[in-house]
Amino acid sequence: MPRPSPSSNQHSSINNDVLTVADRLHSAAIHLLRRVRKQDIATGEGPARLSALSVLVFAGPKTLKELAAAEQVKPPTMSRIVAGLARSRLVEITEDREDARRMRIAATPKGTRLLQKGREMRIAYLASQLERLTPDELSQLGEAVEILGRLLQNWC
Amino acid sequence: MPRPSPSSNQHSSINNDVLTVADRLHSAAIHLLRRVRKQDIATGEGPARLSALSVLVFAGPKTLKELAAAEQVKPPTMSRIVAGLARSRLVEITEDREDARRMRIAATPKGTRLLQKGREMRIAYLASQLERLTPDELSQLGEAVEILGRLLQNWC
DNA sequence: GAATATAGTTAGCTATGCTAACTAATTTGT
DNA sequence: ACAAATTAGTTAGCATAGCTAACTATATTC
Fold it and tell me: What's the pTM?
């Protein structure tokens, strides 16, 4: 996807520098993910399943609603994702004793192993590309990613 | 998607700092796009169509094969994306006079307008979030995005 | 001119997203 | 206490988007 010069909204409260950064950040994120995503094919599971599984692995068991919220997806969508994960024995579903409507969804050891292997491949691939940067560029990128992470945490 | 401490691959040629940056960059890109993507709903077209349309708008007319390559997608997939865009009158298909097998796919004025409006919304939304950063943080992010852009251009 | 290669389509599968309408369980309100 | 309302999750049905395999039609090559 090409990147145009940002439209000249000089009148708005948003100044042009912010628009430029926003535009290039958007474009970079799209292209980066498109490339990294191809590494995931080796796991045999789709992106939505891997992402949901990663929540379970790193944040512990969740109910379906919690998982849907964490993934910013509607319950019926998450219902199907979890069904797929359960079919592949990557998660285990048990009943909540306090509330019979709820389900407790937890990653199995197999799920944890698969996720971590896949993650290693993705990250290793991305890291191998980042190695082409100078140490200075890498540390600049590192700081920027921290800034982004904080921004995402208190997004409005 | 939570972010684990990177696995301790001290033995490999990829050092831990690179892995850390790679991991957080990956995670940030996923979450950023997930949020920005929701702005696109207002355009009434899906992400694959908008992305293909943007190639046509900013890089000019293309054949189906070229467009598929630009979007890193197989021809049958692009065939359907283009069919959808044509149905919505966002692109126009004409025949190549030199080779009757080829099709020339071009954005219509309507397509160009829709894309630019959608893009403005996305970027404006992202920019409104970036405004919460200090000027210093913004400039750090700006530099990092330039570094990333260069990295993506000569990706291996 | 026959064989081969190339451009695109069609058919059919999977996955992921949605809304609307449903079941079952819990909580609330009288 | 029990009817009404709320909450958790599922099911059905739709659209988009990805793939491979097998097809048609046109160009190219031998």
Answer: 0.82
A16 pLDDT band, cuts 50/70/90, is: low
Supply the pLDDT for residue B17: 78
Q: Say which CATH architecture domain A16-153 belongs to.
A: Orthogonal Bundle (1.10)
Question: Are the C-beta atoms of residues B14 and A128 closer than 8 Å to each other?
Answer: yes
The residue whose two tokens read 């913004």 is B138
Footprint of strand D on the protein (CB under 7 A): A 63-66, 75-76, 79-80, 82-83, 99, 101-103; B 45-50, 71-74, 76-77, 80-81, 84, 99-101
- With CB atoms and an 8 Å threshold, state whether A4 touches B155: no
Q: Look up residue B5 and give its two tokens.
A: 């401490």
Please tell me which residue lies nearest to nucleotide D8, judged from CA to C1': A101
Task: Tell me the domain boundaries of chain A.
Answer: 16-153
Distance CA B110, CA A32 (A): 29
Distance B80 CA to D30 C1' (A): 36
